[in-house]
Amino acid sequence: MKSKVVFGLGVLCLVAGLSKVSADETVRYSTHIKPIFERHCIGCHGADSPEYPEFKENKKRYLKMMKGPRMDTYAHMLYFVGWPDTGALMRHLDDGTNRKDGKHADMYQYLGSTEEERKRNLHIFKEWVGYWSLKKWKDTTKEEIDKFKVLY
């Protein structure tokens, strides 16, 4: 009987589109973000992708190759959350709820194969970041930066 209850709750969570992170669980890069990244992002942002300065210098070339800046490590990803490209991760993954035009950001579509999966994965990213802001470094206050969680 217990296995039926557990199975039933699992199906309910999948059907409801709820996050795979429990309410009392702390979202971490190593446990939650890295697996999502490896499933959906590594093809364009993996170890064979350029470092950010190289990407910026040759952006058109890399985009033709379907390559974005390298983000396959914790340190690389922090570059696009906190500094120096503050908020870039959020600006590119946002589902439109934080944008004036209400449109999905360019990378949101790659967070999953269904809208439910994209919403679930975005929720996990938001929990990991802690303070979901689309602001750039020059517009971000110290108090806002202090709200970032981004735990390994």
Describe the protein:
The protein is an all-alpha fold. It has one domain (19-145). 49% of the residues lie in helices and 0% in strands. It contains nine helices and no strands. The chain has helices spanning 2-16, 29-40, 42-45, 52-57, 59-64, 74-79, 88-93, 115-129, 142-145. Helix 2 packs antiparallel against helix 8 (115-129). The relative contact order is 0.15.
Low-confidence stretches: 1-19
As for the number of domains, it is: 1
- Helix percentage: 40-55%
Radius of gyration: 17 Å
Tell me how many strands there are. 0
Mean pLDDT: 89
Instruction: Give the termini distance in whole angstroms.
Output: 38 Å
H/E topology pattern: HHHHHHHHH
Structural class: mainly alpha
Shape: globular
Structure in a nutshell:
This protein has 152 residues and is mainly α.
Fold blueprint:
Layout: H1 2-16, H2 29-40, H3 42-45, H4 52-57, H5 59-64, H6 74-79, H7 88-93, H8 115-129, H9 142-145
Characteristics:
single chain, 152 residues, mainly alpha, 0% strand
